[in-house]
Specification:
alpha/beta; seven-stranded mixed beta sheet; seven-stranded parallel beta sheet; 23 helices; about 40% helix
Length: about 650
Amino acid sequence: MNNLWNDQDPASRSSQPLELRTYTSNLIGQSDDLVLHGGGNTSVKVKEKNFFGDEEEILYVKGSGWDLASIKPEGFAPVKLSVLKRLATLTKLSDTDMVREQKAAMTNPTAPAPSVEAILHALIPYQYVDHTHADAVVTLTNGLRNESELKKIFGDRVLFVPYVMPGFILARTVFEMTQDIQWQNYDAMILMHHGIFTFSDSAKTSYDLMIEYVSRAEQYLHESGAPAKVATSQGNGFGLNECLRLASLRKEISVVAGKPMLVRLDQSAEAIGFSQHADVAGKISHGPLTPDHVIHTKQLPFLVQGENMNSLVSDYADRYEKYFSDNKTDGLSCLDRAPRWGVWPGQGLLAVGQNAKFLRVIGDISQHTTKAIQWADAFGGWWALPTKDIFEVEYWELEQAKLKKAGSAPEFEGRVALVSGAASGIGRACVEDLIACGAQVMALDINPEITEMIKSPQYMGMVCDVTQTAQLRECLIKGIRHFGGLDMVVSNAGIFPSSCRIEDMGDEYWEKSMAVNLTSHEKLLHVTIPFLKHGWEPAVVIVGSKNVPAPGPGAAAYSVAKAGLTQLARVAALELGADGIRVNVVHPNAVFDTGIWTDEVLTKRAQSYGLSVDEYKRNNVMKVEVTSKDVARLVSTMAGATFAKTTAAQIPIDGGNDRVI
């Protein structure tokens, strides 16, 4: 374990305890072998004057919702130390009441809520306290459950605490254990199956101790034969058939969850290597690395075996329901029965979540869990806590309270869209609107800038010539592997050729318009329909043109292609309706905030009509300007619940065109 303390960093030389606390917290957060996604917590004790000028001791402890890697001073909750210590003397206190009393003892009501382990931090009589869920430490406490064995590794300056439920019960247990101890004889405290605390009156020393004790655990694992690098493999290949299986699996998981879910396939060499283990089913059957993970991952993962995805997921759901029935207490309601991670032999690890954030969290946890499983093989493997203990954390009253307070999700959370012609104009606006509505978006365009166009975990930009079926299929496989399936297609790619009368038109001019404005859309439908059949409320929205109902001279190649595209959409609606796939068309007109409408072109066109540029932009019945964002909003609406029972519709968005009317 590398020690990241840097004497040259100005933050390391700060004289302000909270700034030093922030610095070492950030150092801890930089290592995902110590903490993952909001895990762990840190604190510092300071003396401050209150409103009346009286001096009192305040515990600044990591606030709820903050990650150690990015926490700032305002991310720590200031709580009166005397109140926290007094709470520890109570023999009984529900975690809900504990949270309320901790909030009431805060000196700044606008600060984040204190960590549920604030009382435990208060009990440790040192200024700086660090707590992590270090992989190496938890791996050892899951396997070497004899305290004497652990003392051989960590030494006599460590206090070992048997596993108890996090929250007040844990704080009370430590309170009772430490009434008569001499704290100066200890540098650290290890919580079985949970993690490690280090402490000191020096921020640097507390951090150094964390690195030292975790390094001892890593050294023991190495000396026991744990691999420095876990098994790796190149896998069995992932083609169209595997891609369709993944989409089918994702649909069945979504049905069991009762909402659209995302599934990401991790095909790193490490993930595939683990998936090919001869006893992979046994390796994943013992439970989570630490009980904290169960909130994200559920008790056990699933194994992708056989061809019947429906049976695979329903069997998991049945096992989960039995797990709940066997352990439930009065007042608990069963969470959704869908899995959150799994192993696909020969293909890698699967993460399941309702949005990109959860996919990342669950993916990272599964990677660390499988690494720890292989480490534990070196000394006989680990055995997680009894099922009852795992269940108590998953159905913890504080977690239940969070679920009840959770607001409604964005309309397209958990859903996946594909947009063609996505690098500019209407296509880009559609991507942005879909992301704003919660969707994950595969964006295709021939422009190389598409790959970096939007910085969002919901976005995946891919260079693609949409006239080439092989490229479309390759991009679709990449996107399905990343998001798990496909629910919405916005078929938007197109070109607007310069004006040309029929008698002057060459073959190349005509054929290029047909290839991009018509045939590419047929190719896109051809490759996406098999996946849309496994989609959640699947919908296709095709971007047509005003030229379909009202063509103009000099635009034959464009108008005929768009008319053919509209006819293609009507036939697709007839063919796909029985599969629940809706196909609708929008017909925009005079959308001027696109690449083809430069200031020069707009000025010339407006002058030809005897209008100003502003008048030309609003040259419609309603005298309004139609923008790409307006079209995108209509596209998203047509893909959503408002049009859930509409197919084969053609809707203009043009401010009212007198020729169409």
